[in-house]
Each structure stands twice: as C-alpha cells, then as structure tokens.
Write a sequence for this structure.
DNA sequence: CACTGTTTAATTGTGTACAACTGAAAATCC
DNA sequence: GGATTTTCAGTTGTACACAATTAAACAGTG
C-alpha cells in the first residue's frame, strides 16, 4: 500500500485521541437517557458503581478508582448527598479522610442499574469479545499515558 | 451499608465505557503540557486542526466535524478570537451562518503543532498499526452509538 | 405576498474536569 | 517533643459539554 507522506499528520480523522474523545462522548450520550431515569449523571453513576461494589469508600479511594480529584468529587458527592443517595462523614480514625456511604435509597438504586451495562453493550452492536479486547487496549493506553505523564514530572 | 457480591455486571473494571472515559482523559492530559505552550486547550486544538485542514469553516461545519454544538463552540470560538487566532463573520450569502477564519497568527501556529500527534503517539508506547486498529474500532462504536441514539428518537 | 416551518448561532443553566490554593490533620524528622 | 513535610478534602476560577430556549434568517407553500 502506498502511503502518502504527509509532512504534518494534522488530519483530524487520523487521530486516535479524537476518536477516543468522540467515542467517549457518544457512549456517554447513550447512557444519558437510561441514567436520567435513575436521576444520575454518568460520573455520578461511576461513583455509585464503586460504592455498590465496595461499600463505604473514602473520597481519596474514589478518586484513585475513578482518576478524579477532590475538585471534581466534592461537588459531585454533595449532589449525591442532597439527592439522598449517600452520606458523608469524617473518618474518626483519620480526621482528614471523609468516608462516603450509601443510604438505603442509594442501595436500592442498584437493582434498577443491573441491566444497564448489558443494554448499552448490545446497543453498540459490537460483539462482547471485541469489546473486551477494546477495553484491554484502552487500559494499556491509559497506563502508558499515566506513565508518560509521570516521566515528564521527574525531568 | 452491607454489600452483596454482585451477580450482575456492575463491575467498574469490566466496563468499556469507563475504560473509554479514563483513556480519553489520560490522553488529553498528555496533550495538555504540549498544548499549553501553544496557548490552546484540547478542544481548541481540535478546532484549529479543522481550520488548518479546511480553511474558512462555518460554526455549523465545525460542529458536524467535532460533534459539538453551538453551546460549546460559541464561547470556545470567542476565546480563540480574543487570543487573536481566528476571526468570526456572518456569511453574506446566508446571514444565519457564521464563518470562522484563521488569522495570520492562527496560521503560523500550525508549524508549532506539526510534531504533536507523532510525539503523543510515541509517548503511549503503542505501535502505530495497533493505534490505527484502535481508532477504527472506536469509529465503529461511535457510529453505532449515534445510530442507537437515533433509533430511540424515532420510537 | 403572508404563513409556516426549518436552520443557524447564541444564550442560559447545570454538571463535570482540572489547576491552584487553603486549612486541618497526620506522618516524619531531628 | 517540636518543627517540617505530607496528606486529604474542600474552595475558587477557568473551560468545556450539553439540554433547552431564543431570535434572526431562510425556504417552501398556498
């Protein structure tokens, strides 16, 4: 195959990063009508996933899992709290830490969420094994990006 | 709250959408220090890519290319304008339309941007052919997500 | 031509993202 | 034990995203 030697490679359609950015937003948009019925945004749903999976979780641990900082999580958690889905309390063992816990309503919401991932996966029309491959590749890239960012800091 | 082992697929790590969301943010973060030197954010860089490639472009066409609406583009373009990189003017042929054009400074910035995509791709450490595969898979998913969203509207 | 409906940008309001900073609490060092 | 440093959550400010609305301009029809 002949390859046109583009001096620049500033072609939008060739860029993986744009494909990633567009795909992420398109998939989030697919979640939106479903999550609307639960009264959740997509990032709020991610926080609920962690809480459903692990129970009581500190803001710090949520941030590590979701790769979000307190600047994003603090207001988000406030909204979940005023929606009656979670409570927040300082950890008596370490007063710096704030532990987020599910309320009964937050726990009940889990049942309504069970079908969501499969429904979304099917809506894409991409076979499950291909999605799993994609997910693994994305993880590799995410790790590499984090590693590259670390590198720059230490120079 | 007590937690129950999940029979369901509400596992964060299994979700393609989260992998996508995390990867998109991680890659954007990799662009950030590079784009900072050009005085651009990542979405602004995307707009500039389109303008470098196609020249004068309407807000509508930018929105179609980047899958962004005027609610995002209008303030973004204002910032590019006040940075002296673009100008905006109503199309005399169709007064509804606003055409965005590069200034001389905006055009010059292109040279400084030429090396960016390759540098980012290399920083991920993922081989180019694998990245191309990934990009194609992402496009398929994006298209499927848009199609699925369309479906819902017509029901 | 008037009427209807559509297209296009812009605006408003809500909710992320993220950098930079603050203050309190804990860990570390001497 | 006291000083220094680090950790943690929250706040502030900037910049997206996106739904919903508005207003102007255009297109098509009777």
């Amino acid at each position: 195959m002949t390859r046109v030697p583009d001096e620049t490679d500033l072609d939008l359609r060739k860029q993986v990063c744009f494909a990633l950015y567009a795909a992420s937003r398109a998939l989030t948009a697919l979640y939106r009508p479903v999550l609307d019925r639960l009264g959740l945004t997509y990032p709020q749903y991610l926080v609920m996933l962690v809480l459903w999976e692990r129970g009581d979780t500190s803001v710090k641990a949520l941030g590590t899992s979701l790769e979000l900082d307190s600047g994003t999580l603090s207001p988000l958690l406030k909204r979940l709290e005023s929606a009656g889905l979670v409570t927040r309390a300082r950890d008596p063992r370490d007063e710096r830490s704030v532990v987020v816990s599910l309320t009964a309503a937050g726990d009940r919401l889990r049942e309504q969420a069970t079908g969501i991932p499969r429904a979304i996966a099917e809506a894409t029309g991409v076979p499950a094994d291909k999605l799993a491959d994609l997910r693994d590749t994305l993880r590799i890239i995410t790790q590499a990006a984090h590693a590259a960012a670390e590198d720059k800091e230490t120079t």
